[in-house]
Amino acid sequence: MTVLLLLIPVALGLGFLGLCAFLWSVRSGQYDDLDGAAARILFDDDDAASADSKDHKNIQP
Amino acid sequence: MTANVIPGCCAPGALVDPSAPDLGAARNWDDSAIAADPAAYVRRGEDDVARLHMMVEGIHCPACAHTIESALKSEAGVLDARVNMTTRRLVMSWREGRADPVALMRKLGGLGYRLVPYDPARLAAGDAREDNELLRAMAVAGFAAANIMLLSVAVWAGAFEGMGPATRGLFYWISALIALPAVAYAGRPFFRSALGALTAGRLDMDVPISLAVLLAVAMSLVETARGGEHAYFDAAVALLFFLLVGRYLDRRARARARSAAEHLLGLMALAATVIDEDGRRRSVPTDQVTGGMVLAVAAGERLAADGEIIAGRSDLDCSLVTGEATPEAAQPGQKVFAGTLNLTGPLQVRVTAAGEGTLLAEIVRLMEAAEQGRARYVRLADRLARIYAPAVHALAALTFVGWWLVGGLDWQAALLIAVAVLIITCPCALGLAVPAVQVVAGGRLLRRGVLLKSPDGLERLAAVERVVFDKTGTLTLGCPRLVEEGYSRGDLRLAASLAVVSRHPLARALCRLAPDVPAADGVREFPGQGLMVGEMRLGSARWCGVEDAPAPDGPELWLTRPGHAPVRFCFVDQARDDAGAVIAGLRRRGLTVELMSGDRAPTVVRLAGELEIERWRAECSPLDKAAHLTALQDAGVRVLMVGDGLNDAPALAAASASASPATAADISQTAADVVFQGARLAPLLEALDVARKADRLVKQNFTLALAYNALAVPLAMAGLVTPLFAALAMSASSLVVIANSLRLRGGRLRGGA
Description:
heterodimer; A: 61 residues; mainly alpha; 2 helices; 0% strand; elongated; B: 753 residues; alpha+beta; Alpha-Beta Plaits; Calcium-transporting ATPase, cytoplasmic transduction domain A; 5 domains; seven-stranded mixed beta sheet; 27 strands
């Protein structure tokens, strides 16, 4: 049963990593626009390139 | 899809019916893409980056969002532009001095989107933070629930395999280590609200929830310390998780409703152009307009305040104020009201009343008075909670007392069983029953072009017995149509060659029947009177000098030219295409239909006859309308009011449920529970059907949840419930409720809907 002492912390640690990733995604605003984000992948961004596109910054409404 | 998608023909999912007549033209929105001077709203950050937040009107689908973003990003100097589809808001940033926000807004106006700058700090930003807090609490509870459940499964399995008490104790301690911080963090929304309810001296759903979770954790901790057999860490945390899911769904439905309302309110806060005494023009927010100021009102703009015209001639569209469909000619000396739309020529208006003193403010006061009746409505879930919470506590207390005094157990064992009762009765499924249905119903309606604005609107909509319609703009399109008689094709083409230069709605209606006629050379428009080229005139009977004109029975235009008899063009306000069908559909659903209008009796009678509506009222003032609705409500008739005008707003607020088309006055949309888009009325039927179905589902959900309780509570009171049973039964009841709610997602609701 000593294997438990290793496996349980490993399992909890992995779960904790997932939790941290989720909390990070909430904090960075990825849940602010669920309707738009779903469709955003369908559009090609190439035609939107402009002279300033290199310093586009990620902003959130 | 390319960046050239224009509204109206955008991708699948577009809410606007492409066959719809050109409503935008009638309301002149396309001409006023810039509602307010954005300069006051631009925020400057470091390194010359300027940023502007705007609400966008006219977004129908993600393609629209993409169109806007790529149109902006292709401009030099623009750093970023991002549209939030959920809130229909846009934020763009650019290098100061390298891009002009007004030009950018004008460009989007050309694409058909109307933009209104706003100050993000003024909209409730705290709500978004609370939203995120719930989401984080949900994540923590989910993580804890999953991991504790894993350990619990091991314990349950171990019970059959001969797991030693030491290993079990270890597992319980690890569970406690996860559960305690998780409950402390994720339980806060419930604890806060329960504490608030208790200090206010009442019980709500959160009191039994908090009690059950806290007691379960505390008891499990004591059991673990004693080396006992049963611990409820898994049940307590799973309960918290399911309840947080319900809470989050509920919150999202409300947030969506609220953001719709904020959007509408924001659109009202436009700017007005003031002419100072030295002749300079400047833009001020409408709430800073005061009496005595002189406003410049361009063609296509809405008046910001009541006043008197001091210069200029034009035609005014008063349909949102009075319900009258025909535009009114305006000249110096005439009194005008806030909310009317200036159609043809620029005007200068001296403000006589602003803010609180306007007709608009009067309407708002009427509305607030009318709304008090509606505020008394208590949501079904809250009514249930009032009975449920005391009942649960009484049962648990009874169990404790029964086992301790009558059953002869020691008080610890009796307390264990009482806590089990509290855990098992916890309103997990009850907490999900309403929000789950509401989110599914709201999503379904949104896809059909119906925006649900108040969270309890569905419940009230489902109980409606009578539907009262406004006429202009609601049953009709609010946009005149030429009657095809009394003129020749040549007359029409001639008239159209003049009319094509005008923005007057009658002129537009005329041109719609002769779309390919080029404008005649040198046409001059005399706002408020008519059009002229050479000796030929198009306009009112007086403008054209027709002396023996018959009394008009509706809007009309005359065409005169030397050597020919004058020609008359008559117009009618056309009923919406499916108005008849929808009214028949309402009757099939057992509802009484009534027509109530501010327009003159003959017009109302004609429409009532055409649509076979037996009950009608004409020439109603806003006060009459609200009074009629209040009288009906007092008589116990639950009414759905459908209206679009400013004059309907008090009636909308007085009705037990209300709906407005998306073309309605802002304030009516604010008062309405449901806003439907497009030129058809059919979404109204859809909304009613969904509301009734949702009502049935909510009641089924409650029945399911109560049936589960009826099964589980006796077992718990008998002391037969183990942690395994509690965890399984609770999760199962929640999942059944969610699955039942999802049935609303697809499929037809009933025949002919």
